[in-house]
């Protein structure tokens, strides 16, 4: 399949914050983020958001189409304006038939998301709120490779990701700051004593 044929299948869009890109009520499709950010979330039984992940440049959503799953249980809302491409389920199957190597790449992304979801569930299994927040921060140090970290989402979204209220998250960040484990300003966090923070997780 030539590049021009692929481009004919893909819909290019520039989307602004607040735009709903996908939802359980919309026809399933593959979404590729070129620039900007998308918040992926579910609604619990009370209609409250549970943030699952934040998509950025190069991320893909909708790999379940690989398995013939034409339904979606998640919502995608644009957080930061940017350019995104979408591909219908039918056109996606056509593309896979001509570019089977894409299936392996998408399966890898699907596997990575599964690991991220498992990690999120491990956070939620920690009953102590301070330890839940601390564990998340230690993981961010490991993934970002430095002790001066940038939280990957807004504080209110991080709160729902960790199943906390924004007030509870702020309170526990302040408590860790009072213990001299970190300094925090908005989404910028400097871990001052990583060893002590890690030890605090097991006290």
UniProtKB/TrEMBL annotation:
Domain HTH crp-type: 127-195
GO CC aspect terms: cytosol
Domain called Cyclic nucleotide-binding: residue spans: 30-113
One GO MF term attached to the UniProt entry: DNA-binding transcription factor activity
Pfam entry (one): HTH_Crp_2
Signal peptide: none
Keywords: DNA-binding, Transcription, Transcription regulation
Positions of transmembrane segments: none
Record-linked InterPro entries: cNMP-bd_dom, cNMP-bd_dom_sf, Env_Response_Regulators, HTH_CRP, RmlC-like_jellyroll, WH_DNA-bd_sf
PANTHER family: CRP FAMILY TRANSCRIPTIONAL REGULATORY PROTEIN (PTHR24567), HTH-TYPE TRANSCRIPTIONAL REGULATOR ARCR (PTHR24567:SF74)
Name of the molecule in the record: Bacterial regulatory s, crp family protein
Taxonomic lineage of the native organism: Bacteria, Bacillati, Bacillota, Bacilli, Lactobacillales
């Amino acid at each position: 399949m030539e590049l021009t044929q692929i481009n004919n299948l893909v819909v290019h869009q520039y989307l602004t914050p607040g735009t709903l890109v996908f939802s359980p009520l919309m026809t399933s499709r593959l979404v590729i983020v070129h620039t900007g950010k998308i918040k992926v979330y579910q609604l619990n039984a009370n209609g409250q958001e549970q943030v699952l992940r934040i998509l950025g440049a190069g991320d893909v959503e909708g790999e379940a189409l690989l398995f013939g799953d034409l339904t979606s249980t998640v919502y995608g809302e644009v957080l930061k304006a940017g350019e995104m491409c979408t591909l219908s389920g039918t056109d996606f199957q056509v593309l896979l038939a001509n570019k089977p190597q894409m299936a392996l790449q998408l399966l890898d992304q699907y596997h990575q998301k599964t690991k991220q979801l498992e990690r999120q569930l491990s956070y939620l299994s920690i009953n102590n709120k301070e330890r839940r927040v601390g564990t998340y921060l230690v993981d961010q140090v490991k993934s970002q490779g430095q002790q001066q970290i940038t939280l990957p989402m807004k504080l209110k979204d991080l709160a729902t990701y960790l199943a906390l209220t924004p007030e509870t998250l702020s309170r526990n960040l302040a408590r860790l700051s009072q213990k001299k484990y970190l300094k925090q300003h908005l989404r910028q966090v400097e871990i001052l004593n990583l060893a002590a923070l890690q030890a605090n997780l097991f006290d």
